[in-house]
Design brief:
Length: 690
């Protein structure tokens, strides 16, 4: 039915004499088609189409209609419909930059009718001006031609309507007359808009900052004037001379979603002047000089010639690992030590037999011991065994060693899931002492291999930052991994988390919950932690707060719940680079008795970094619930800037030396409000690396 409607519509249009419809008719057609355009063309009755060519023809016809609808919406100044079409279709599907029969693009109509909101929407979608308008004269001539031809057509139709007797053809000509009168007024309005327009004012502000030792970042804002035509592009120029003679380079920016530009390939230590000018259909406006008027590409490392902390470390570790593998490449798994206690020998033999026996399977219940469980999730579903149990395998049923040491070792192993077989061989060969620690770690590797084999998955994910323990003596080490694609597995299946939690409640004792019960109860919290720990910060420079607290067997670090892989922090600015001049100022501040800036002095009040740090310190003190007057005793870490990749850098704010790490039993009067965690330091370091 829909196909027939489209064909009937095309036939009806073919019978009509050439010329646009009337404004009211255009609106009715545009509104009627709007509903049809929202229907995906694949929902048509494809059974009635003959062959792929027919489908492609219908698709092209459908996209042609959407292009026509965009022109109609721009001409009728319907901003909502323009935004809807831009959201629904790609620029290619809309033929956004293909001129119509009059040689106009949607952006041309928007800017010449001075419809700034529609023009901005089109520009952000990637719209361009017509390539036919190579000069002011060509645009003026084109508009004059459109007005003249429209006026001529109006006069012709008016004469025909006046001279002909009333009939059906006369009624049709009256409709055409109204349509051409409307188009004549549109072209006149476009011509008047062009004639009355003037070149744009200079950008309202241009900010210049040092992006690296070879680049500068320019950020600018559109002109404040509302009387000139819409700005469609900007030009960034740079030179070593304040007169810009000679100019060193320029760049034209016509993608206006973000008004910034990075000048690359500059010489470190050389001063560059920058200015920006705006363009509209009348030409280029006056330039606006940057603030500050010039900048020198540099980086804080140039202050003392320091090399990056991690330069070559990854390669060195890879080489070291390769050497160790070469030494152990002929190793095979050996029998456990002869002189170990009988109970431990029996446990290891049992584990080995359980691993390689074809009947190996997941555990249904927990006895007193150490266990490994792997949580794989997708949306609100997790993987369970065919008995609707979370996958659990035994590590050690007689565990009595130091849990935290073994747990932290396990978290390091999680960085090498693909190397478990090789690690087992190495641990087997090296357990000449047959110590409790080596035996436990060998069993951990066996359990990992067993879990990988039963699931058919090598990567078990990220280790949760603390084991789950119950009063019965069970300990669960939990790994978490999000599955992005729809995968099927032989030994496990997907079930909703809520269903698993409901069924578990019916068979468990609320008075003495087991470690599995506790895991299910806190499942959403653990999944949320895992998802948040993989989030990345947006590019920029941050101020971090380093706060530690010590316990008997570990040191923990304060982190925000919303981003537990990063220290408590606030953003200083979007530019991550610290220039040499800024670092020199920070070194000067660090040598003062009051290392944290409070009140501006004459030589620092104009320093942008000083002002940015003042704002950031106040915000950070509020975040971690520390009175602002206490900040006078805090210090900025002045040994280095912490670089995390190529996008994020950190300055550290440290409490007084006596308060950096809170000792066991020591009262901290300024406890952060809710929304914070304390992670074991080694877990935090692994999370930051990952």
């Amino acid at each position: 039915k829909m196909t027939q409607q489209m064909r009937d519509l095309q036939l009806a249009q073919a019978r009509k004499p050439p010329g646009p419809s009337s404004p009211n008719a255009a609106k009715r057609l545009y509104r009627n088609l709007s509903g049809k355009f929202r229907v995906n063309y694949t929902s048509f009755d494809e059974g009635s189409l003959v062959g792929r060519g027919e489908k492609e023809k219908l698709r092209k016809s459908y996209l042609f209609q959407s292009n026509a609808a965009l022109f109609e919406a721009v001409e009728l100044q319907d901003l909502d419909r323009v935004q809807e079409l831009l959201k629904q279709y790609s620029p290619e599907e809309l033929d956004l930059n293909t001129p119509n029969s009059e040689g106009l693009l949607p952006l041309d109509i928007a800017i010449m009718t001075n419809n700034a909101p529609i023009a901005r929407a089109l520009l952000q979608a990637g719209a361009k001006e017509s390539p036919h308008f190579v000069s002011l004269e060509s645009r003026s001539l084109h508009l004059s031609t459109l007005v003249r031809e429209a006026e001529q057509r109006v006069n012709e139709l008016m004469a025909q309507v006046v001279n002909e007797a009333p009939n059906a053809d006369c009624s049709e000509k009256e409709k055409q007359l109204k349509a051409w009168e409307w188009r004549f007024r549109l072209y006149k309005r476009m011509k008047a808009g062009f004639e009355h327009a003037r070149v744009p004012d200079a950008p309202s502000s241009v900010h210049l900052s040092v992006a690296s030792s070879s680049s500068l970042q320019v950020t600018f804002w559109e002109p404040l004037s509302v009387n000139s035509a819409v700005v469609t592009k900007y030009k960034v120029e740079w030179s070593c001379s304040p007169t810009f003679l000679p100019p060193l380079g320029e760049a034209v920016i016509d993608k206006l979603k973000d008004l910034h530009f990075t000048i690359q390939g500059l010489v470190s230590g050389t001063a560059y002047h920058v200015r920006v000018s705006a363009y509209n259909m009348k030409g280029w406006g006056p330039p606006q000089a940057s603030e500050p008027p010039f900048a020198i590409p540099s980086n804080w490392r140039e202050y003392d010639g320091r090399a990056p902390r991690r330069r070559g470390q990854a390669e060195a570790l890879d080489n070291l690992l390769g050497q160790v593998k070469t030494v152990h490449q002929h190793c095979i798994c050996h029998e456990p030590c002869k002189n170990q206690p009988q109970s431990r020998k029996h446990s290891v033999s049992k584990s080995l037999k359980h691993l390689f026996h074809p009947g190996s399977k997941f555990l249904k219940t927990l006895k007193r011991g150490l266990y490994l469980t792997a949580i794989f999730y997708k949306d609100d579903n997790i993987l369970v065994t065919h008995e609707d149990q979370i996958p659990v395998v035994e590590i050690d049923d007689t565990y009595s060693c130091l849990l935290m040491q073994d747990f932290l070792w396990f978290t390091k192993v999680s960085c090498m899931w693909d190397e478990i077989l090789w690690l087992r061989q190495c641990v087997t060969v090296s357990q000449s002492s047959c110590s409790c620690i080596l035996q436990t770690r060998f069993k951990m590797l066996l359990a990992i291999s067993q879990m990988q084999g039963l699931l058919g998955i090598q990567d078990l994910g990220q280790v949760f930052f603390e084991p789950v323990k119950d009063k019965q003596g069970n300990i669960l080490i939990v790994t978490l991994k999000e599955v992005k694609t729809n995968q099927t597995f032989e030994s496990v299946r997907w079930v909703p988390i809520c269903k698993l939690q409901t069924s578990r409640k019916s068979v468990s004792s609320p008075e003495e919950p087991t470690a599995l019960d506790m895991l299910l109860i806190s499942m959403q919290d653990k999944l949320a932690y895992h998802q948040r720990s993989s989030h990345a910060l947006s590019p920029g420079l941050y101020l971090g707060y380093l706060k530690l607290c010590s316990a008997v067997d570990q040191i923990r670090v304060l982190v925000p719940e919303r981003l537990p892989n990063i220290l408590c922090h606030v953003k200083i600015r979007s530019n991550r680079n610290i220039s040499r001049e800024e670092w020199e100022w920070l070194q000067k501040m660090a040598s003062m008795e009051e290392p944290v800036p409070r009140e501006p002095e004459a030589d620092t009040s104009q320093n942008p970094l000083f002002q940015e740090l003042q704002v950031a310190i106040k915000e950070l003190m509020t975040l971690v619930n520390i009175p602002l007057q206490e900040a006078k005793d805090f210090r900025l870490y002045s040994q280095e800037v912490l670089d995390f990749g190529d996008q994020v850098s950190f300055l550290l704010l440290l409490p007084p030396s006596d308060d950096v790490c809170t000792a066991p039993g020591q009262n901290n009067p300024y406890t952060p409000r809710s929304g914070f965690l304390t992670l074991p330091l080694q877990i935090f370091e692994l999370g930051e690396e990952m």
